[in-house]
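## retry 2 of 3
previous attempt timed out at serialization; input unchanged, resubmitting
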Amino acid sequence: MILTDTHTHLYSEAFDDDRKEMMQRAIDNGVTRFFVPAIDSTYTARMFQLENDYPNEVFLMSGLHPTHVKENYKEELTHVEELLSKRKFYAVGEIGIDLYWDKTFLAQQQEAFQYQIQLAKKYKLPIVIHCRDAFDEVFEVLEKEKSDDLFGIFHCFTGTKEQAEKAIGYNMKLGIGGVVTFKNGKIDKFLNEIPLEHIVLETDAPYLAPTPYRGKRNESSYVMNVLEKVATIYQKSEAEIAAITTENSKAVFGI
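## retry succeeded, writing output
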């Protein structure tokens, strides 16, 4: 059984003390494909080191995370574009809008999101969307950029069924992670009404650990717990869910 973690911050400082062991636990659990989103330029070197250490398992994205859109966001966007022009990446992400912590830079977040979508189209890459307390704002930008060459993943999807269907309408897969295992996660109530072809699995490690690890550090091996829950929701075997969601990830990322 091959499992894919479509969203994991393996370069995070949270793993500095035991990264090798953490990676081995994931690999031992059948997780052999790790898609790694960017945050900002300060993490680029760490991402490249991770890729160097795991050249057959780790696949990198380039992008500016919405919570890191600050006064210097134009410099950061230049960095993203320079990276995309120089070497292979598998997506532009994670990008989007986050209004949970701070609304100060909403206009800049919208500008950065739209600009990075345009970069993704230029380089024929998928986008990986971060959306927190900002569904309307994210959909507004997606509507402006809607086209056949817009596609990707709505990472850590936590919205309603209607929002799920709207995201799918923009050629987005739904990234399902630890929230699906939470008692108050809500998406488990309607997820089985969404065709499996639109679903990929993720952890968002080191964040949002699934039950029974909720509140602790997340890691990529815990995608197994997400898999178990999704298999229960769809009433299919874990092997079948693993195979379908990995194929879905291949359709997005091209590998």
